[in-house]
Design a protein that fits this description.
The chain is of the alpha/beta class and about 375 residues long. It contains twelve helices and 14 strands. The protein has one domain: FAD/NAD(P)-binding domain, CATH 3.50.50.60. α1 packs parallel to α8, α8 packs antiparallel against α9 and α9 packs across α12. The longest helix is centred in the C-terminal third of the chain and has 23 residues. About 45% of the residues are buried. The mean pLDDT is about 95. Bound molecules: flavin-adenine dinucleotide. The site of flavin-adenine dinucleotide has 34 residues, from α1, β3, β8, β12 and α8. Pfam families: Pyr_redox_2 (PF07992).
Amino acid sequence: MKVAIMGAGLSGLACAITLEQNRIYPTIFEKRNEVGDRFIYNELMLSIINRPVTDSLAYFSEKHGIYLHPVSNVSKLIVHSENEQAKITGKLGFTNARGRHKDAFEKQMAKQIKSKIIFNSKYTYEQLQREFTHVIIATGDAAYTAKVQDFQEDLTVTLKGATVVGKFDPHTTAAWLDNRLCPKGYGYLLPYSHQEANIVLAYPDYPENRKKDLNTLWDRFYNKVCTDLGQNLKIRDNFEVTRYIIGLCKYPRIGNTFFVGNCFGAILPFLGFGQYVSILTGIYAAYDLCGIGDYEKLTKPLQKNYNNSLVLRRYLEQLDNSKLDKIVKKLNGPIGNKLFSSKHYDPLKLVSYLLRPFVKNNTRKV
Ligand SMILES: Cc1cc2nc3c(=O)[nH]c(=O)nc-3n(C[C@H](O)[C@H](O)[C@H](O)COP(=O)(O)OP(=O)(O)OC[C@H]3O[C@@H](n4cnc5c(N)ncnc54)[C@H](O)[C@@H]3O)c2cc1C
């Protein structure tokens, strides 16, 4: 068996680690100069998203032998709406670095493999298919999947972010749900340390949003973050991501080609979390190649989760600021804490079932 992995990101490297655990050594093709050769930013692994798993990092190490260290554990989340604020506490998840950061998840994973990585790769899928028995498509870009098979795009997102300097508690993250700042989207703050944090504005590219000026929205968001934190944050670096695709591929596997990570449809549309499913799909593709599992069967529950998340996104998009205020008010205190720390049921799945009748064009069949 000769396996090529296209992309040395989370899903590709998770696949490589798992293959190596089973004594298969793939060749990895990476377009960039090095692993994580991208702007530095922080991401969040929120436990409530990954139920029934409550601690995703412990799960990856204990069940799958993939060892990841976070920047910090998150014990407080402050959600702001126009007029309300919810403080949610508990074991909420982890923040982790990405890109060129020395402790970026992809860099931690690259240290766990022996397989060869070919950098600055210009290989196309067609070339790899000719030279290898199996190809794993892990380019992090669903547009690549769309060239090869049917990929149903549900939305694309614009993201603008910056590293800001100020005073932060590394265990406290914040989110803003306010259509004046982030129409049908949200903004968030993830600290790297006591002195630095990432602030990011993310909203869908619907026609009504395309008319809006990104820089005006950004200035509004940045000023709101400064006001809510009572600090004059200094901006260090910034980044923009445009037309970030969220959707699901029709076939997780076609013949000897596997679609993993964002190329599978790892990003959950509600809030855009994709790391957990990216790593899982990489592991599952390797399981199939090693004869441990069937990729299509293993990914079925992930497709269902995606659909549940799409219902939540469509519901969120229907809410004006007064409704967002009501929800945020309810989340404050024991209700929010209980919801986020529930261990025995999947709250997002439950809520998505309850909301389904109230959401227009809510989902598609898996
Ligand atoms: C700004 C931003 C913030 C995010 N925040 C969060 C968050 O807080 N929590 C969360 O869970 N998720 C978040 N996500 C989503 C998450 O980052 C992705 O779902 C996840 O990284 C996808 O993993 P992947 O393996 O598919 O792709 P990646 O990890 O992006 O890796 C893809 C790799 O393939 C390489 N590549 C691309 N094209 C080719 C090619 N033609 N040939 C060879 N190599 C190629 C790339 O250079 C890259 O190294 C965020 C995404 C962005 C953009």
